[in-house]
Amino acid sequence: MRINVMMIVYVRYSKMSLLQGDCMKKVIINPGCISCGTCAFTAPEVFEVTDISHVKEAVDLEKNKARIKEAVRKCPVQVITFEE
Ligand code: SF4
Fold first, then answer.
1. Gap from CA of 21 to ligand 1 centroid (Å)
2. Number of helices and strands in the chain (H, E)
3. Other C-beta atoms lying within 10 Å of the C-beta of residue 55
4. Ligand 1 atom closest to 40 (CA)
5. What is the distance between the alpha carbons of residues 39 and 49, in angstroms, rounded to a whole number?
6. Sign of CA dihedral 50, 39, 29, 35
7. In the chain, which end has fewer C-beta atoms inside a 10 angstrom radius, N or C?
8. Which atom of ligand 1 is least distant from the CA of 42?
9. 26-77: per-residue pLDDT in tens?
10. How far apart are the first and last CA of the chain?
11. Which pTM was predicted?
12. Structural domains in the chain plus CATH codes
């Protein structure tokens, strides 16, 4: 009998940071996302929701600042942090 071992790694939260000029901006999805999709609906260029919400790579945080702040406000479980 052959035994196959499979490892599945789940990324529980995503972190994205971007250097822009002299300041560093970060959007962090903290643990507790309920996958409601509100952030992706509010800021589709920034967030995507698969199993949980993730911040897309190479997103322009400065350009999307207003929508990110709106997503932070609208998240029903308040797990999004935007550090300017
Ligand atoms: S709005 Fe909040 S709870 Fe809903 S998918 Fe985005 S991070 Fe998760």
1. 29
2. 2, 5
3. 23
4. 6
5. 8
6. negative
7. N
8. 1
9. 999 999 999 999 999 999 999 999 999 999 999 999 999 999 999 999 999 9
10. 56
11. 0.76
12. 2-83 (3.30.70.20)
